[in-house]
């Protein structure tokens, strides 16, 4: 497998491999060796070309300090290679061994209440710990040296789902390292005090030795700047923990590719050191797990949303873990994919940017905390419908691989995402308002339902590929982004900026000018004179959670204001009037700015809520509120559709999911996926070839439940 030099991080970045990685995470240490050869033979028969292994086996690689034992994995790797299966190894640092926890308890995480993590789960090690970093370098160097010339080891995964169990630690070593980081960042304690607002609530520090970790609600809130820097520090510490390993692996064998598999995406700054150090990024995809916890509108939409968010961080990616069956840990279990659904979910991952995919897992464990997390095989070692679907997916990949590689996902409507500072800025002071991601979901889902090419982008990306860009209240803004966005609008793009955007500095201070700042106000021709909350009917008048608890809101002894339940605001958009949510802004408009929609009632009746102005060949719009489902639908119909933004394939039934991948040479692959269990009828005009069947669909045809077409324009 050939690796090329990766391009800079961008939503448009293709994967730098010349083959689609296809296989499974594999745990030979979980079964007797008598299973191994049969496993490898079945993998090859299924069409797999790679496995991933070793991420939880530090205790096997190094049973006691300084003594390394590679025998078990040497034999497993060799056995797989005899059947043409290559191996991706993982640094095993997600599970430091018991001897290390006992000899150096200072490596253990400490939670906000001061409880020290116990050995016996995973991610109990504190990645900010210098001691853990030393041992991480040792095990990585030993493994890299041993496999440096082994042709059957083709690449590495660093750790496993960094920060997924938790990203937080309040250990002594974490506090010491945080103080060092603050000293390097600010240089003087005066600058830190200025950034964190030390004159508020007497939080001023006399020296860096006094700096503490931000423990929330103890007894009240910490400075937003303090909390923001803590999470910046955690992201930096995570990146440096990984960099230790990456540098060793690259120095040992520069031909290896190196990636990481992300789970929860906590305290990871992809566009900084973390993503730049890797050849590409992997994202573990469990659609039914997201829907269980996030309730985003069904498994299919949950997966599409999560994949589009993932792609915004780095461009194309691989899926080191793709759900295959029931997923379970002791406290929960997911729904089970129905026959055909596992393959459909895998094709959705490919349609939205995956250039490699591994089904989790080869076989389920018979012991431990995931005994009911099912794999391709069943507990009795028998291949059944999941194996058959994996095999069919492998044949799908074989049919499309040459057309697929080198393409990226088409986006007509971009939604600003993938910015670590804005994600954290919201969390430092949420006020009970939706996050940028929660706001963006309304527009993303409206576009998804219409099969309009949409995705999340960063303002630093090449925006010329877009037709429209929506910015969902990014509190922090950079003037260089304004320049890129202005060029996009002047070139013919449609920009929509929402409420509260460009209102804080990088230190989480409020700007000393009317928002939006950093040049956005000049581009939009709008300034925000006043803002306030909008209460939904039945609201108690208090938004978010007050630290004093009882005595506030309907559950306490101080009643909510009697009028709060009636403070609903409405929007007049064309001939339609509908309720607003969350926030109003009172806008001041420059000459030449048009009013697109107005407030329909209350004291700001008739004033602008949505504006627009021509800028060059394009237009710049400002939305002085947050999205609702209804408002998002109206914006698609009244702002985007008139601008020539239409479905990828017109006149298809609403039940289908349509995505397009395009290549620099003009290649177009259109994925038509049926995420439902029912048969859907469509009508195609014969201009495409279905790569999966080899046929040219023309006229009426049926797509069975969970089936798919991959259409190439010939």
Characteristics:
alpha/beta; single chain; 18 helices; nine-stranded mixed sheet; 714 residues; eight-stranded parallel sheet
Report strand order across the widest sheet. Answer: 13-12-14-15-22-21-20-17-18
Give the overall shape.
globular
How many angstroms separate the termini?
A: 29 Å
Helix tally? 18
Largest sheet: 9 strands, mixed
Low-confidence region ranges: 546-565
Name the structural class: alpha/beta
Structure report:
The chain is an alpha/beta fold and 714 residues long. Helices cover 30% and strands 20% of the residues. It is built from 18 helices and 28 strands. Strand 17 (570-573) and strand 18 form a beta hairpin. The longest helix is centred in the middle third of the chain and has 29 residues, at 224-252. The model is unreliable at 546-565 (pLDDT under 50).
In short:
The protein has 714 residues and is α/β, with parallel strands linked by helices. The protein has 18 helices and 28 strands.
């Amino acid at each position: 497998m050939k690796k090329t030099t990766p391009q800079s991080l961008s939503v448009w970045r293709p994967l730098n491999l010349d083959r689609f990685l296809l296989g499974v995470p594999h745990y030979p240490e979980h079964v007797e060796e008598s299973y191994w050869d049969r496993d490898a033979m079945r993998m090859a028969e299924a069409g797999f070309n790679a496995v991933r292994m070793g991420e939880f086996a530090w205790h096997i690689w190094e049973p006691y300090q300084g003594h390394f034992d590679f025998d078990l994995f040497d034999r497993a790797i060799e056995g797989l290679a005899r059947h043409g299966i290559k191996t991706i190894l993982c640094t095993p640092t997600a599970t430091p061994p018991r001897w290390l926890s006992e000899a150096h308890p200072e490596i253990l995480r400490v939670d906000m209440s001061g409880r020290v993590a116990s050995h016996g789960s995973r991610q109990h090690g504190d990645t900010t710990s210098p001691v853990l970093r030393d041992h991480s370098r040792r095990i990585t160097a030993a493994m890299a040296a041993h496999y440096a010339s082994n042709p059957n080891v083709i690449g590495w995964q660093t750790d496993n789902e960094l920060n997924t169990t938790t990203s937080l630690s309040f250990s002594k070593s974490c506090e010491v390292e945080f103080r060092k980081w603050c000293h390097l960042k600010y240089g003087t304690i005066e600058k830190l005090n200025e950034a964190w607002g030390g004159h508020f609530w007497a939080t001023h520090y006399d020296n860096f030795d006094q700096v503490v970790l931000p423990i929330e609600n103890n007894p009240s809130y910490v400075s937003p700047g303090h909390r923001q820097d803590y999470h910046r520090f955690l992201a930096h510490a995570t990146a440096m923990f990984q960099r230790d390993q990456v540098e060793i692996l690259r120095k040992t064998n520069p031909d290896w590719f190196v990636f990481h598999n992300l789970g929860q995406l906590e305290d990871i700054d992809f566009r900084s050191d973390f993503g730049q150090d890797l050849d590409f990024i992997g994202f573990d995809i469990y659609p039914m797990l997201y829907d269980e916890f996030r309730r985003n509108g069904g498994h299919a939409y949950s997966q599409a949303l999560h994949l589009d968010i993932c792609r915004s961080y780095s461009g194309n990616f691989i899926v080191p873990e793709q759900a295959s069956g029931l997923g379970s840990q002791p406290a929960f279990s997911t729904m089970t994919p129905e026959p055909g659904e596992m393959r459909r979910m895998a094709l959705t991952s490919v349609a939205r940017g995956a250039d490699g995919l591994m089904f989790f897992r080869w076989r389920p464990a018979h012991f431990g905390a995931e005994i009911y997390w099912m794999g391709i095989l069943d507990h009795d070692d028998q291949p059944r419908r999941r194996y058959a679907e994996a095999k069919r997916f492998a044949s799908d990949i074989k049919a499309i691989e040459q057309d697929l590689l080198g393409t990226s996902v088409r986006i007509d409507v971009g939604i600003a995402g993938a910015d670590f500072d804005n994600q954290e800025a919201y969390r430092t002071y949420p006020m009970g308002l939706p996050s940028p991601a929660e706001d963006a979901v309304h527009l993303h889902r409206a576009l998804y339902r219409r099969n309009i090419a949409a995705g999340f982008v960063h303002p630093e990306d090449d925006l010329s590929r877009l037709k429209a860009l929506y910015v969902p209240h990014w509190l922090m803004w950079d003037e260089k982004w304004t320049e890129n966005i202005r060029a996009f609008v002047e070139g013919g793009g449609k920009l929509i900026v929402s409420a509260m955007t460009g209102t804080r500095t990088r230190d989480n201070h409020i700007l000393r000018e009317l928002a939006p700042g950093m040049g956005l106000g000049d581009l939009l021709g709008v300034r925000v004179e006043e803002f306030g909350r909008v209460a939904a009917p039945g609201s108690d008048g208090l938004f978010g959670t007050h630290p004093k608890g009882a005595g506030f809101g309907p559950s306490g002894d101080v009643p909510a204001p009697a009028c709060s339940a009636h403070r609903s605001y409405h929007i007049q958009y064309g001939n339609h009037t509908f309720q607003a949510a969350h926030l109003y802004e009172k806008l001041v408009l420059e000459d030449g700015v048009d009013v697109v929609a107005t407030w329909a009632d209350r004291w700001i009746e008739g004033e602008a809520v949505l504006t627009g102005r021509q800028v060059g060949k394009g237009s710049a719009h400002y939305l002085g509120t947050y999205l609702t489902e209804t408002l998002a639908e109206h914006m698609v119909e009244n702002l985007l559709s008139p601008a020539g933004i239409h479905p990828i394939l017109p006149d298809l039934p609403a039940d289908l999911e349509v995505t397009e991948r395009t290549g620099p040479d003009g290649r177009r692959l259109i994925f038509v996926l049926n995420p439902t269990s029912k048969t859907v009828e469509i009508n195609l005009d014969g201009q495409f070839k279905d790569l999966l069947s080899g046929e040219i669909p023309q006229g009426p045809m049926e797509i069975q439940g969970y089936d798919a077409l991959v259409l190439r324009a010939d």
